[in-house]
Specification:
about 600 residues; about 35% strand; seven-stranded antiparallel beta sheet; 8 helices; alpha+beta; six-stranded mixed beta barrel
Length: about 600
């Protein structure tokens, strides 16, 4: 049985045999159809080509892999991916901003999400949405798939994509009236168990919360539950194995709703809350600035210092924020409005709020213990594919099935987290296998989260602010003054060694930062090409008097490079204007190689 592959303009480019393909779909993760094809001819399939399988469009997003097996035989591995992988291509933005805070329920989030997504890839829609309480998230230059994972995780839900319809529910999938066990006509050939990586058994749980708004005289640095919680059965089985649940967002707090707003002047604002049930005066925590933190609206995620509180009108007066460039917030339309939610920090809360926080922490500790008190494992099932066909059943990721294995004491309803089978199914062939991974662990796409962690670390390292630039220039100036005081008592040291004694590494022309510029080698999967994005070069020694020391550099692309040759990459910066360009050459360029320019 063959399936037709088309290119991006709808022209047929190939027919592939489904007997050479394996279909895999994993809960909130992988969705692929992978062909392994041996051919004496070049397989003319490339990025953007697509096919339709099980009613869903699947696209090639990476160049096919190939291996030469003989003089005229090639093995191609071609991966088609479902629509969910398309989300990785697009960045989430809200009103043009890639870095923003958001607050709302799932309807609010998906309205924003689809407005962004459909602006670059039309046809996306919402399926079922769970009703959840509003929640806040921060987005920082992430792709739409990562954003969808964050939204699902924050709402304690799962997502499912069929075609271009996105559903977010507490649990996706269907409870199947199936029992799988060993033996003839019982649906199960084999079962293997694997322990989840980075998991451990916890039989005794402690719990700590945040550091904000703690009561007067509180003896601990974090909100802490007294004692511990044991699971007696697990302790008997595995002994005492301690773990600590921690959530910095659990602390004594009150989420209020604004009932009135006023602007006193361009630096002073106030909000009123008619339901505020205690007097803030006299409750400020010594050594901590009392602040109002907005949880929704135009000021969502921003904190402002509290200036005063009127218990009569229940009005909080707060001070505007001003950054190093003189920009003020609130400003213009980005102000507090009636109905916005807020909370307070740096304030000692009444005992009722302390009790509520401890109760929340207690519930989370129990949840944590129940999730970790037994070994966290997944099972891989090799199912009887003929039995499945006789049952007129096809398992899907998210489904719940009953699995029995008396030898290991397994008798439970368990989630199907992934399925993998020959693409011909339900057409049967000799030796065909249908495998399913089962387990009650829900993973919010680990690869995405690892990439996100790496990205966030990179941004912390490379982030450049006006303050840090000025500090760096002052530090370099101080180091150069120190270098001038270093001398060689033997009179035979070169300047480079004197710099090493002073703790300076590199030359003056090399003291600069790049802001917003990233270098890509093997650009476009071409081993002989590189590219750089546009951005700024911020120098710490060189400057143009009267203009400054930050040069704008445009996009740069180079191909046709010779792999056996060494190349030097330099920023060619004007000595009369804050503009420049990249130069790639096999020649060594001194900083003053050309009149009117510096080469960094």
């Amino acid at each position: 049985m063959e399936i037709e592959v088309k290119n991006s303009i709808g022209q047929k480019v190939a027919d592939l045999n489904l007997s050479s393909a394996v279909y895999t779909k994993r809960l909130m993760s992988e969705h692929t159809l992978v062909f392994t094809v041996n051919s004496a001819n070049v397989l003319d399939i490339t990025i953007g080509d697509y096919l339709t399988y099980k009613g869903e469009l699947m696209t090639v997003n990476q160049e096919p892999q190939y291996t030469q097996l003989g003089s005229n035989v090639f093995e191609y591995v071609v991966t088609f991916q479902g629509a969910r992988h398309t989300l990785e291509r697009f960045k989430l933005k809200d009103e043009g901003s890639f870095v923003f805070d958001y607050f709302g329920d799932l309807n609010d989030y998906m309205f924003m999400f689809l407005e962004c997504l459909n602006s670059v890839d039309s046809g996306w829609a919402v399926g079922e949405l769970e009703e959840v309480e509003p929640f806040a998230l921060e987005f920082n230059k992430i792709d739409c798939l990562s954003a969808l994972n964050d939204i699902a995780e924050a709402s304690e839900c799962e997502w499912q994509i069929i075609g271009k319809e996105i559903t977010i529910k507490k649990t996706v999938g269907t409870a199947r009236a199936l029992t799988l066990r060993y033996g003839k006509d019982n649906g199960l050939y084999s079962l293997s168990r694997q322990t989840l990586v980075n998991s451990s058994i916890i039989t005794r749980a402690y719990a700590v919360g945040g550091t904000q708004n703690l009561p007067q005289g509180y003896s601990k640095k974090q909100l802490t539950l007294d004692g511990y919680l044991d699971d007696p059965v697990s302790v008997d089985l595995y002994g005492v194995r301690e773990g600590i649940f921690e959530d910095q967002e659990i602390y004594p707090k009150r989420t209020g709703s604004v009932t009135g707003v006023e602007q006193i002047n361009d630096r002073t604002f106030s909000i009123s809350d008619s339901s505020l049930d205690f007097d803030l005066n006299g409750q400020r925590i010594e050594g901590t600035e009392a602040k109002i933190v907005f949880k929704s609206g135009g000021l969502n995620g921003q904190e402002f210092a509290i200036l005063s509180y009127s218990p009569t009108s229940k009005t909080i007066r707060y001070k505007a924020n001003e950054d190093a460039n003189g920009n003020v917030s609130p400003f213009g339309t980005m102000v507090a409005e009636v109905g916005d939610l807020y909370t307070l920090i740096g304030i000692r809360m009444p005992e009722t709020y302390v009790t509520a926080a401890l109760s929340e922490l207690e519930a989370k500790r129990l949840e944590y213990l129940n999730s970790n008190k037994v070994p966290r494992v997944v099972y891989e099932l090799d199912t009887d594919i003929l039995w499945l066909k006789r049952q007129n059943t096809e398992l899907h990721e998210g489904d719940i099935v009953h699995v029995v294995d008396e030898k290991i004491g397994l008798d439970d309803n368990i989630r199907v987290t992934a399925v993998s089978y020959p693409a011909l199914f339900p057409v049967l062939e000799q030796g065909m296998k249908f495998t399913a991974e089962i387990g009650n662990e829900v993973t919010y796409t680990r690869i995405q989260k690892v990439e996100k962690d790496i990205k966030e670390t990179k941004e912390v390292v490379t982030q450049v602010s006006k303050t840090s630039i000025e500090n760096d220039r002052r530090n370099v100036q101080a180091l150069n003054e120190f270098k001038g005081l270093v001398f060689d008592p033997d009179g035979n040291l070169e300047n480079a060694l004197i710099q090493a004694i002073a703790g300076l590494f590199g030359t003056d022309s090399m003291y600069y930062d790049l802001d917003g510029i990233s270098l890509t080698v093997n650009a476009g999967n071409d081993a002989n090409a590189i590219s750089l994005t546009a951005g700024k070069l911020i120098h710490k020694r060189y400057k143009i008097d009267g203009l400054g020391y930050i040069w704008d550099l445009p996009v740069f692309n180079a191909d046709g490079l010779i792999s056996t040759k060494p190349y030097y990459l330099a920023a060619k910066c004007s000595q009369t204007a804050l503009t420049g360009e990249w130069v790639l050459t096999t020649d060594q360029l001194a900083v003053d190689s050309e009149n009117g320019y510096w080469f960094f």
